[in-house]
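Lecture notes, continued. The same structure-token format from the folding unit now serves as the input rather than the output. Read the line below as a description of shape only.
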């Protein structure tokens, strides 16, 4: 993140991982939270949206460029696997929590087109993810999501999500509601 960029504070967000067999489709974030890191596709939930509607919208927005390309998934093909609470602290000392609803999709249509949000997308072997190119907490929770485990988790970050301030906590559950 460029020094002059102000940190974005999100309250509710979604994240979608596209899974095909032993592979997951990831791309590099170009701006905002996680800039320069590999990630799934997602962003903030609008007040009028359900988490699933936001996941469909964000996936399409982050995989298309204007009217060109884009990956579409139907709500029924999204499986909610986790809810992560990312506790963050800005450089100014402001603390905020972002509640992220995490989905996997194994069925979708369309093609990825690089844009100002995401670029350099590729499939990665689930058992050999490049964690050095991902957010610090990802190594603790993403493998669980990609195995289909259900959980609630918490990761506590310092400014710009560059380092973890505490151990990542995961609490497995039998099912997760689609309610916000």
């Amino acid at each position: 993140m460029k020094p002059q960029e102000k940190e974005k504070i999100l309250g509710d967000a979604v994240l979608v991982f596209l899974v095909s067999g032993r592979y997951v489709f990831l791309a590099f974030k170009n701006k905002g939270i996680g800039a320069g890191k590999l990630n799934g596709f997602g962003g903030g939930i609008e007040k009028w949206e359900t988490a699933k509607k936001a996941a469909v919208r964000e996936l399409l927005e982050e995989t298309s460029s204007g009217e060109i390309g884009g990956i579409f998934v139907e709500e029924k093909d999204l499986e909610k696997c986790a809810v992560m609470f990312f506790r963050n602290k800005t450089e100014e000392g402001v603390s905020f929590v972002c509640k992220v609803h995490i989905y996997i999709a194994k069925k979708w249509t369309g093609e990825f087109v690089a844009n100002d949000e995401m670029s350099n997308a590729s499939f990665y072997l689930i058992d050999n993810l490049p964690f050095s190119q991902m957010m610090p907490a990802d190594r603790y929770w993403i493998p669980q999501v990609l195995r289909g485990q259900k959980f609630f988790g918490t990761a506590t970050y310092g400014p710009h999500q560059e380092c973890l301030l505490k151990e990542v906590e995961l609490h497995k559950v039998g099912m997760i509601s689609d309610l916000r």
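Point for the exam: The chain has one domain: 12-172.
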